[in-house]
Amino acid sequence: MVQLLGLDNTKGGEVRTLLLALLLAGNSSVVSVRPHPSACFAPCSLELRITYEHHPANKMVAVLLEGNNHFDYGEIPLHESTPAVLTRKYHNLPAGEYAAIVVLVRHDGRDIEAGRAKATITITGD
């Protein structure tokens, strides 16, 4: 996804800003994200359940979890045999507000964004 956006990995702030701007533009029904739990006490173990619509041109799902002092970015490659429900787990997250952002990338001659979703997580205490 970083390459898709034309940025390198050293520019995390720019990646976060651009991904957030893309996601604020709207939601899509081809991909969704549900945090479990959506609110908890620190330190918290969190699981993101990502559901996407199967399509032969799907290339990957990019996952961003961003909080006050936390940033995690990963890419999950998609194949025909990839399950339609994916999970991404995080452990020992400190207190704060978190945004989970998921982007479905499709390759139709070039990489394009096929869908996006966002969820908010609140972790209290510490």
Explain what the structure shows.
The protein is mainly β and 126 residues long. It has one domain: Macroglobulin (MG2) domain (Immunoglobulin-like, Sandwich). The chain has 1 helix and 8 strands; from the N terminus they run αββββββββ. The protein has a 5-stranded mixed beta sheet, covered by helices on one side. The protein has a 3-stranded antiparallel beta sheet with strand order 1-3-6, with no helix packed on it. It is elongated and about 45 Å long. The N and C termini lie far apart (33 Å).
Keywords:
126 residues; mainly beta; Immunoglobulin-like; five-stranded mixed sheet; three-stranded antiparallel sheet; 1 helix
Task: Itemize the secondary structure elements and their pairings.
Layout: H1 12-24, E1 31-36, E2 39-41, E3 44-52, E4 58-67, E5 70-77, E6 85-93, E7 96-107, E8 111-124
Quick synopsis:
It is built from 1 helix and 8 strands; from the N terminus they run αββββββββ. It has 126 residues and is mainly beta.
Poorly predicted tracts of residues = 1-11, 20-27
Strand-residue fraction?
over 45%
User: Domains counted in the coordinates: how many?
Assistant: 1
Number of strands: 8
Shape: elongated
Average residue pLDDT: 82
Structural class: mainly beta
Give the strand line-up of the largest sheet. 2-8-7-4-5
Order of helices and strands: HEEEEEEEE
Whole-Å distance between the termini?
33 Å
Query: What is the CATH topology assignment?
Result: Immunoglobulin-like
Under the CATH scheme, which architecture would be assigned? Sandwich
Largest sheet: 5 strands, mixed
CATH C-level class is Mainly Beta
User: Rg, please?
Assistant: 14 Å
- The CATH superfamily bears the name Macroglobulin (MG2) domain
Q: How many distinct helices?
A: 1
